[in-house]
Design a protein that fits this description.
This protein has 224 residues and is mainly alpha-helical. Helices cover 71% and strands 0% of the residues.
């Protein structure tokens, strides 16, 4: 049986990820309904809600679990030996389950069919590159602020994702659990299942490069 503290951490990751997906998908549905066909306006609404939601959710859940809400963030901490494998796997499982439940919650709130598959293709190597860049920057944001200004991490992550929605061609998923879950929503925030492997491949590549680069960059200088 898992210790009570570990159960709280796993639940924290699951519930936090579910609420994040409810924000992402729900604001996408609302934005599209209110934008009158203006995709830029719908994306702006989706962006602001996601960035703001991240700041709040990370602030709330970070004291319990660290508020990863993202398998590549958990992977990055595991690669730096800040997490053991069992905890990392439990986190990833909770994140994936929570993400799917969050999508269904958003559908329920907007009277959409719960079970959907997205038809929104996001193809091409540029999209994979965009996800690599978005994930690299996200990991760098987390590592950098945790090193120098931990209290600023929620705001920094929210601001980074807000910016990355607009400077990346993929609108910055930067999260395998989010990518998988959004393939189950044929709404504004959706991604067709056929595009999922490209996105996750880019995310994993970006995370691995980020871990190597920022570990090197932030290493402490030893006295000569």
């Amino acid at each position: 049986m898992l210790p009570a503290g570990m159960i709280r951490r796993i639940v924290s990751e699951g519930v936090g990820t579910a609420l994040l997906l409810a924000v992402v998908v729900g604001s996408g549905i609302m934005g599209e309904r209110l934008a009158g066909g203006n995709a830029a306006l719908a994306l702006l609404g989706n962006t602001v809600a996601t960035g703001a939601g991240l700041v709040v959710l990370i602030s709330v859940f970070a004291p319990v679990s660290g508020a990863h809400f993202n398998p590549v963030v958990t992977l990055a901490f595991w690669l730096r030996r800040q997490f053991d494998r069992r905890t990392a796997l439990a986190y990833v499982g909770a994140q994936v389950v929570g993400a799917v439940l969050g999508v269904w919650l958003a559908h329920a709130m907007f009277a959409e069919p719960l079970l959907q598959l997205s038809t929104k293709l996001r193809p091409g190597p540029a999209q994979g590159l965009a996800e690599c860049v978005a994930t690299f920057g996200l990991i760098g944001t987390v590592f950098g602020t945790q090193r120098s200004q931990p209290a600023f991490t929620p705001m920094a992550v929210g601001l980074y994702i807000t910016a990355a929605y607009w400077f990346t061609a993929s609108t910055s998923f930067a999260n395998p659990a989010v990518t998988l879950a959004r393939s189950l929503s044929d709404t504004f925030a959706g991604i067709a299942p056929a595009s999922v492997p490209l996105f996750i491949g880019g995310q994993l590549a970006g995370a691995l490069v980020a871990v190597a680069f920022f570990t090197w960059l932030f290493q402490e200088e030893r006295p000569q």
